[in-house]
Specification:
Blueprint lengths: L1 E3 L5 E3 L13 H8 L8 H15 L2 H8 L1 H7 L3 H29 L5 H17 L7 E2 L2 H19 L7 E5 L6 H4 L7 E3 L10 E5 L2 H28 L11 H24 L11 H11 L6 H22 L12 H16 L1 H5 L26 H26 L5 H17 L6 E2 L1 H9 L6 H17 L8 H11 L1 H5 L4 H7 L1 H17 L1 H22 L2 E10 L2 E6 L12 E6 L8 H12 L3 H14 L6 E2 L2 E2 H12 L14 E5 L8 H16 L3 E5 L6 H6 L2 H4 L4 E2 L2 H6 L5
Parallel strand pairs: 10-13, 13-14, 14-15
Antiparallel strand pairs: 1-2, 3-7, 4-6, 5-6, 8-9, 8-10, 11-12
Helix pairs in contact: 3-4, 5-6, 5-7, 5-17, 5-18, 5-19, 6-16, 6-18, 7-15, 9-15, 9-16, 10-11, 10-19, 10-22, 10-23, 12-13, 12-19, 15-16, 21-22, 22-23, 24-27
Length: 733
């Protein structure tokens, strides 16, 4: 069909009719093989869909699908699975106790709340979850975001917008740290909008139990509302909402949150009373305040923190991590440190002698369920949805990771349902939104966890602490919990060191990572996440605008196979004489429609609009046809001028250098009205100057749009299945 000439370019050779009989125009192919479109009305489709679901309904199937534990227990092998699940569950449960208390304190709620969450979340996920190795409970990131909601509530109450359980007091900004948190340890909350102004607004508790009870109810109300929203979303199949957040975005966001978490725990490490800063750049304001108060550091608290962090780090780094392949169960060093610190603090009277802040009263027993006042959540629904979407995204990512590793299927809709129900249950039992823990999931898997039954043993361990052991944590130093949080975040900050390699792999993904991380640091969690999602979407749009539309040539990869590749990137790609092949490597829609036309004109070297303008100038200035000037006709002069100005389309001797443009549309995944208008504009403009335009490789997803807009009917003769069929139709003059 084509042969090489002496210049190295390719020329068309004559094709016998019998040889080309198997080539189809696209319109012929579609009319022959495509099934007719379903003309059924939308209302009929809905009715038929509902009727099919009713007929296919089975109580047994529904129960098996809604409660995956039923299927798990049916195939459960007590001999093979029980021992592994028991060991893994107990191991994860031991880790839950100190981490749950630490992360709950991070949310500015009592540490015991973390144990409630760990118990009810694990128990609920045991029934509803499809991730067999997942360990649920309190998460640092979600706890900090919940603290942000509670801060907003405190500010609202302080401003007179809520119940009168808080009292607003105007004080001077030069108050000492004792002024923020008095000798009686009553909680106080700073209104950040005036954090560094004269006349800082401080919110002081009149009745601490009443205040904390109300804050617990706010957290519960937000969790219940967000959970119900997620449950509803799972029932209508919106599980793909997590696709808005790429792995790069989630990782960058979590690292950014980690900076906030560490900053919030520095006050506990140093024994300082630091007001919670809110608003933009709050992390910077907090560090400025911390440095200004360094002389007031509690030395006893600092020493306990340093020793706790050092012990936890050394055991994790040089024993648990180093020998994890040999050790089926890692040393529960956090729990060991908590127990030892509690004992020493109790007998050495750290709280009374050295003013070391301790956990104090820990309520015993399971809290009774209480349905919170949902009106308390009306101002924070958006924040709650953001938190639970993050919880779902992290949980689904871990579930899929474990599913791939152990060869089982994870149902994303069921995971969304489980995440929503867990949130509702936790909200009813004095808790808040939770998710699967990455570190504990890895430990539970490494300890041999086989099924969700491991979660049952983990919740049993937590229940034991709630019912029996809890009261013995009265003298546990709070700085130990801060130490546990900081050391457990070390792996997050190690991800900063992989940025150079990530940049080499994908600059776009790395840009999303960096924006999500530092955007979260500066703008705080909620605004930072939304800004990161918007940045990610804008980057996608930008990529579609900058994705090259290239001139393609042919490469013979084998005797009967031809590949189209960019002539700029592949020197072996050969162009055809009188033919330009343009490869469209992007969806065609309103964002890049104008860019598409200008790039096609640029890549072909021929701009039809310029040709027509210059042609009209020649017609206006030239004498009548046939007039002889110095032995030459006007026609000859016009051809000479056109050849000089437009060398890419004519050589001045009546020969067209560019006769055909072939647009390869195989990479157009979707097209809109403006994209079709741009395509029609290119075809019409080139046709008006004598250049034929052909389209090849149009994907089936684009065809319905071409048909509904009339493009299909108008341009059916220039649409071809393959390059070969398009070239077979070309008749070069």
């Amino acid at each position: 069909m084509y042969t090489s000439n002496s210049t190295g370019s390719l020329e068309l050779r004559s094709i016998d009719v019998s040889e080309s009989c198997h080539y189809h125009k696209l319109i012929e192919f579609e009319s022959t093989f495509r099934d007719p479109d379903d003309q059924e009305h939308l209302s009929s489709k809905v009715q038929n869909g509902i009727w099919k679901r009713i007929k296919a309904f089975s109580l047994k199937t529904t129960c098996m699908h809604t409660f995956p534990i039923v299927k798990t227990l049916q195939g459960y092998s007590v001999k093979e699975d029980l021992a592994n699940d028991m060991i893994a569950g107990v191991t994860a449960g031991v880790m839950m106790i100190p981490q749950g208390m630490a992360f709950a304190a991070l949310s500015t709620l009592p540490p015991i709340v973390g144990l409630y969450i760990s118990f009810f979340a694990s128990l609920t996920y045991f029934i509803l979850g499809t991730g067999r190795q997942l360990s649920w409970g309190c998460i640092a990131i979600l706890s900090l975001m919940m603290a942000s909601i509670l801060d907003k509530y405190d500010e609202k109450v302080a401003g007179g917008g809520g119940d009168s359980c808080l009292n607003r007091t105007e004080v001077n900004s030069q108050l000492t740290s004792d002024s923020y948190f008095g000798k009686d340890n009553s909680s106080m909350f700073l209104n950040l909008s005036s954090a560094f102004d004269q006349g800082t607004t401080i919110v002081q508790s009149e009745s601490s139990p009443d205040v904390m009870s109300k804050r617990l109810e706010v957290a519960g109300a937000v969790s219940v509302v967000a959970g119900l929203i997620l449950v509803a979303a799972s029932r209508i199949g919106l599980s793909r909402i997590s696709c808005l957040m790429s792995n790069s975005l989630i990782t960058g966001f979590t690292v950014g949150i980690s900076f906030h978490v560490v900053t919030s725990q520095v006050k506990g490490i140093l024994g300082l009373s630091v007001p919670r800063m809110t608003g933009y750049a709050s992390i910077i304001k907090t560090w400025i305040y911390i440095f200004s108060k360094l002389p007031e550091t509690n030395i006893a608290t600092l020493m306990i923190s340093i020793i706790s962090m050092l012990v936890i780090y050394l055991v994790k780094r040089f024993i648990n991590d180093k020998y994890k392949k040999r050790m089926r169960i890692p040393i529960p060093i956090e729990l060991v440190v908590v127990i030892i610190a509690t004992l020493i603090s109790t007998f050495a009277e750290f709280h009374d002698k050295y003013k070391v802040k301790v956990v104090e009263d820990v309520p015993m027993g399971i809290p009774s369920p209480k349905f919170p006042d949902l009106t308390l959540a009306k101002d924070y629904i958006g924040d709650g949805v953001i938190i639970i979407v993050i919880a779902y995204a992290q949980t689904l990512a871990m579930a899929k990771t474990m599913g791939l590793k152990h060869n089982y299927v994870v149902d994303s809709n069921q995971e969304m349902l489980a995440c929503g129900v867990v949130s509702v249950v936790c909200g009813l039992f004095s808790g808040y939104i939770s998710a699967s823990s990455v570190s504990r999931t890895v430990v539970q898997d490494g300890a041999g966890g086989r099924t969700q039954v491991a979660s049952l043993f983990a919740s049993g361990m937590v229940l034991l602490v709630i019912i029996v052991v809890g009261r013995y944590f009265y003298y546990l130093p709070m700085c130990v919990l801060s130490s546990i949080i900081i050391i457990n975040l070390r792996t997050m900050f190690l991800k900063l060191f992989i940025l150079p390699s990530e940049w080499k792999k994908s600059k776009y993904d790395c840009a999303v990572w960096l924006f999500a991380c530092f955007g979260t640091v500066i703008l705080n969690a909620d605004v930072g996440l939304l800004a990161s999602i918007l940045f990610s979407i804008l980057l996608i749009i930008l990529r579609s605008m900058l994705t090259p539309i290239v001139e393609a040539g042919q490469i013979h990869s084998s005797s009967d196979s031809i590949q189209l590749r960019s002539v700029d990137q592949y020197s072996s790609a050969k162009a055809l004489n009188h033919i330009k092949i343009i490869k469209i490597k992007t969806p065609l829609y309103y964002v890049n429609a104008d860019i598409f036309t200008s790039k096609v004109f640029s890549k072909t070297g021929v701009d039809p609009t310029v040709i027509k303008k210059k042609s009209s100038v020649l017609k206006v200035t030239a004498p009548e046809e046939g007039t002889i000037t110095n032995g030459s006709s006007v026609h000859d002069k016009e051809s000479s001028v056109q050849a000089r100005m437009l060398p890419n389309i004519s050589n001045g001797k009546g020969d067209m250098l560019l006769q055909v443009i072939i647009l390869d549309a195989s990479e157009i995944s979707f097209i809109d009205l403006m994209g079709i208008q741009a395509l029609q504009f290119v075809i019409s403009e080139y046709t008006s100057v004598g250049v034929k335009v052909l389209l090849i490789g149009i994907s089936e997803s684009v065809i319905p749009m071409l048909q509904s807009t009339g493009f299909w009917k108008k341009n059916g003769d220039i649409l071809f299945l393959t390059l070969e069929s398009a070239l077979a139709s070309v008749n070069l003059s």
